[in-house]
Amino acid sequence: MNDFPGISWIKAPSPEAAADTAEVQRLVAEVLARVKAEGDAAVADYARRFDRSDLDRFEVTPEERQAAVDALDLQTRADTEFAIANVRRFAEAQLATMQPLEIEILPGAHLGHRVIPVERVGCYVPGGRFPLLSAPIMTIVPAKVAGVDEVIACLPPNAHQAMVAGCHLSGADRIFRIGGAQAIAALAFGTETVPAVDKIVGPGNAFVNEAKRQVFGPVGIDQLAGPSEIYILADSTGEAEMIATDLLAQAEHDVRTRVGLITTSADLGRAVLADVEKQLATLSTASVAGPSWASKGEIAVASDEEAMIAYSDHIAAEHLQVHTADPHAFGQRLRNYGSLFIGELASVVYSDKCIGTNHTLPTMAAGRYTGGLWVGSYVKVATHQWLDDRGVRAVAPPAARQSASEGLEGHRRAAQLRLDRMQA
């Protein structure tokens, strides 16, 4: 473990081994090329090879969508609609903060921007170990709130029926049972049945991630997702059982989940370590959470609050909980994170499921430069300008002079032409 000023460790994570991704890159490149060239035939072939699925068609019919909704038990449907309503309300409030702009920057020189929805978006809904019913909500609902014309959902052929219901209730315009890299290829290039999209969002496995990386450019993506992360910042007021419980709640996602506590209290750190081991003995998902904690779990002791903040900002955790005496004031001092959970009553689990903030968040320290998926991810802020004679008189001379000094004669002429005609 590299030294970090003011930080010592009660439990350090195992060193991160460099991943050999060459085979994943090769296989994904093959999938993309074949789907681009062969369309549905290649998608069907990969569905048989990778998903053991032999569907005669990929799109979920309206009747099948409704049947999936009808198959939900009443409480699951009510909980799903509760989550959808909260995500929608928060997305609507966020969108309301994004306003068109028109300003006269100089007399006669008008600048502005419009907030324009992306025309067509593809939402990848992962299958995974458990049916994550909140996954389609987080990608589809903000897209509909943003005003996207058409939202295409793709999910693996063997995904739970409840996931189809979630896509339908969230407002997906079309749903396809296509998973993996072939789904990303179909969305990026289009096939006989799947329309090409302008942007692809949603997390997935290493093959999905690599496919998104390779198609990026002509097609937009939200981000490249890594394993889930949670860090908790706590002083001596932190409560060991609650911290241990929240750490394990994320650790059960995946054996590669990164979980950690940064605290100014070594006593609290030791208590959390003991409580994690105690809870693992009775946790039904210990077969996943245990290896995650053993290899990725971290308990760091900071010499003071400044060291705790500096180390937290260095990690830039996907989920960051604050359990301190004054969590609101402390939270204002933090800079790098995916989403912040202020006070011990705020749990990542609420965000994961239903409270309204999005759970598709930056990992692998990307929180240093970006936030997570939100309604703004589905719109473009596109600028414009228009001028009258006064504006041309103000900007043409400096634009022409600057162009001339740069040796760009075509630019100089374009800047000067309008002024010359006005003066003539």
Automatic annotation (TrEMBL):
Protein keywords: Metal-binding, NAD, Oxidoreductase, Zinc
UniProt keyword Zinc present: yes
Claim: NAD is one of the keywords in the record: yes
Example GO biological process: L-histidine biosynthetic process
Location of the active site: E318, H319
GO MF term set: histidinol dehydrogenase activity; metal ion binding; NAD binding
Gene3D superfamilies in the cross-refs: 1.20.5.1300, Nitrogenase molybdenum iron protein domain
Positions bound to substrate: S228, Q250, H253, H319, D352, E406, H411
Similarity-based family: Belongs to the histidinol dehydrogenase family.
Protein name per the record: Histidinol dehydrogenase homolog
Species in which this protein is naturally found: Rubellimicrobium rubrum
